[in-house]
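Late entry, S-adenosylmethionine complex.
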Amino acid sequence: MLSGEFSYDEFAPVYEKYTGMIGRIAEADETAAFLERFCGGRSALELGIGNGRVAVPLSERGVKVEGIDNSDNMLKLLAKRSDLIKAWKGNIAAFSSEQHYHLLYCVYNTFMVLATREEQIACLRSAAEALDAEGIVVIEVRVPDFDGFVRGQRTTTVFVDHENTFLNAEIHEPLNQNLLQTFLWFSGTSVRRIPERLRYVYHQELDTMAECVGLELVERWEDWKRGAFTNESKRHISVYRRTRL
Ligand SMILES: C[S@@+](CC[C@H](N)C(=O)[O-])C[C@H]1O[C@@H](n2cnc3c(N)ncnc32)[C@H](O)[C@@H]1O
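Prediction complete; structure with ligand written out below:
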């Protein structure tokens, strides 16, 4: 199963509302502040830029941000928000860039949308090749969590308020480390169904894949405030640079 079978085109109309409800918009400035530290006045490329949730505040800090996304509708949302950011349609599993960037970043579990190991390695390889000599790659992914799975299935209540109920139904395929998830959004009399296939990775597997393409770990944190990564951490933010021999 390749990535690209599921598109964010259907998610785009509700993306801003959803990310607002789960607190992702509230943390976008903190994310931008974290990333700005690595830019040193130079340029950045976001993999899976979406509607610019992070790219817009980062560009407002004076960073020249560019981005890649494979959803026309997400790219349209970005274009409506900012004309400072150059973004193009492409697949983050296989991209090439003539330009070299000081920072490449892939946040909010976007790396997991690459549903095979080969695609994840190809993405890291493309990222490494697009870096300038001192460049940095930042990846944010959640720590795999299987609490509540029964016979390979789990349904989680993501969010409820007076108007919205957001559920996530997941099926685990251990063989390929895939989660086939379907978001179900009930609002008024409508139900939206948004399927997605994800491949989870543990942090040590991510390090190994990064090493395969000539990157080495520099820092790892549990959040954008640079909290320590521990056994209890729910996600990690991993920072890589070119391997120094
Ligand atoms: C979880 S959203 C994150 C968007 C944005 N980075 C943010 O933090 O809000 C994942 C984004 O990756 C894009 N995407 C998914 N698969 C992709 C692929 N193979 N190549 C390029 N973009 C992809 C989606 O269209 C979507 O905009």
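The chain has a mean pLDDT of 95. Will revisit in the morning.
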